[in-house]
TrEMBL record:
Protein name (database record): Endonuclease III
GO molecular function: 4 iron, 4 sulfur cluster binding; class I DNA-(apurinic or apyrimidinic site) endonuclease activity; DNA binding; DNA N-glycosylase activity; metal ion binding
Amino acids binding [4Fe-4S] cluster: C189, C196, C199, C205
UniProt record similarity statement: Belongs to the Nth/MutY family.
Keyword Ribosomal protein appears in the UniProt entry: no
Biological process according to GO: base-excision repair, AP site formation
PANTHER family reported in the protein's UniProt record: A/G-SPECIFIC ADENINE GLYCOSYLASE/ENDONUCLEASE III (PTHR10359), ENDONUCLEASE III (PTHR10359:SF18)
Pfam families with a match to the protein in the record: EndIII_4Fe-2S, HHH, HhH-GPD
Length: 214
């Protein structure tokens, strides 16, 4: 199977079996999604979704969060990984939104990455989810799954993986392909013991063909 054929196989499979793939983070607007994505770094979406309703009730917008103190926000997110840093990042992010962006979440990667707690991956998530921009957020799941299947070749960094994925996925599918790969990595192609026996991608997966078929 050529690389082009492998991409088409993956597209065909997920288009049939996960046509409405989307983020599992719960949010009602771009500000809420940005807060949730910042919190989700090295933390499960389930844990984030248990935490954000309290945050959104008390701090419904950038203006209110910008006025929050560390001692007000920290107790709410203390069950999240790295709560000290994330408390500082969230307040700093909100303050910059108010100061530089009129309280609105910008939808350009180069502007988003200026915000505290926002790296390239988070910026790609925001722009692809909110605006369906052709940006590929590469987290540990996407990095692992794309390499195992053979969508990426010898990618050593998330950026290298991102560049390969956006080159070969059709532009109009990139925002959805992120969710295909991350959800597949979360529930099927897990890190330690991938569930190859239930995976529908066996025929097109380099890992399965090389490691487990025999």
């Amino acid at each position: 199977m050529t690389r082009k054929d492998r991409y088409q196989f993956v597209i065909d499979y997920f288009s049939e079996h996960a046509p409405e793939a989307e983020t599992e983070l719960l949010y009602d607007n771009p500000f809420q999604l940005l807060v949730a994505v910042i919190l989700s770094a090295q933390c499960t979406d389930k844990r984030v979704n248990l935490t954000t309703p309290v945050i959104f009730a008390k701090f419904p917008d950038a203006e209110s969060l910008a006025k929050a103190t560390f001692d007000e926000l920290f107790p709410i997110i203390k069950s999240i990984s790295y709560p000290n840093n994330k408390t500082k990042h969230l307040i700093g992010m909100a303050q910059m939104l108010v100061a530089d962006f009129n309280g609105e979440v910008p939808l350009k990667v180069e502007e988003l990455i200026k915000l505290p707690g926002v790296g390239r991956k988070t910026a790609n998530v925001i722009t692809s989810v909110i605006d369906e921009q052709p940006n590929m957020a590469v987290d540990t799941h996407v990095f692992r799954v794309s390499a195992r299947i053979g969508l990426t070749l010898q990618a050593k960094t998330p950026l290298q993986a991102e560049q390969q994925l956006i080159k070969f996925f059709p532009k109009e599918l990139i925002h959805k392909a992120h969710h295909w790969l991350i959800l597949h990595g979360r529930y099927v192609c897990v890190a330690r013991s991938p569930k190859c026996e239930i995976c529908g991608l066996q025929q097109g997966c380099k890992y399965f063909q090389a490691t487990l078929k025999n």
